[in-house]
Amino acid sequence: MASIKGQTVEQLGGEGSVLVRQRREHAEMDRLMDRCHLLTDPEEREQTLKEIVQLVFSHAFAEETVLWPLVRRSVPDGEELTARVEEEHQQINDLTSEIERLDPQDPEREEKVRRVFALIRQDIRDEEDQLLPRLQDALGPARLRRLGVAWETVRRSAPTHPHPAVPRRPPGNALLGVPLSAYDRLRDGVRSSTQMVGERAAFASSSGCSAPPQQPPW
Ligand SMILES: [Fe+2]
Ligand SMILES: [Fe+2]
Questions:
Q1: Binning pLDDT at 50, 70 and 90, where does residue 175 land?
Q2: Residues with CB under 5 A from ligand 1 (ion)
Q3: Residues 1, 146: Cα–Cα separation, whole Å
Q4: Segment 53-71 mean pLDDT
Q5: CA of 188 to the centre of ligand 2 (A)
Q6: Who contacts 201 (Cβ-Cβ below 8 Å, separation ≥6)?
Q7: How confident is the model at residue 189 (pLDDT cuts 50, 70, 90)?
Q8: Domains along the chain?
Q9: Rounded to whole angstroms, how far apart are CA atoms 170 and 149?
Q10: 198: CA distance to ligand 2 center in Å?
Q11: CA-to-CA distance for 9 and 20, rounded, in angstroms?
């Protein structure tokens, strides 16, 4: 079973495939973590760290809500594989919420940032080398593309900060996590609700669906 890392977009099911979207965001996380290591200006570094946190948590929440339940249903060792990445996600949650509580000058915080980056990189490897190739084997390209739209839809309204006490599995994660997402996005102050509505509408028309799916489409 080949890692998704070296495959072509075509092999992964085309541009909209969940595998292509996953790999693209993993590359962005990698780029931001590398940038964070190189930056010396404290303000720029904090801003980059904030971007990493927002990206990682919305990405992971959508995995836990949309992808891993499907992996458990369609892959023979899905239970074991998803339990492993959920454990990594839990550790990333715990460490990041400690980081958010510590002062940026605290040397202990630096150590935790290093550890959390190592965990994120491990999580990416486990997904690209183990879990996602199995999903590729179990689903055809059309389902991978439908799943890509579902994953992206959830990701766009997912929490953007760690919530270690929220369960990693549905339905608990969605019941507790979705209401927190509005609070997270308010904290981020990155976009107003009207902007979000506009973005959602733009996304819905560009992805060819008029509203987020009520029933899982995969
Ligand atoms: Fe991922
Ligand atoms: Fe992940």
A1: confident
A2: 22, 127
A3: 22
A4: 96
A5: 21
A6: none
A7: confident
A8: 18-206 (1.20.120)
A9: 19
A10: 28
A11: 6
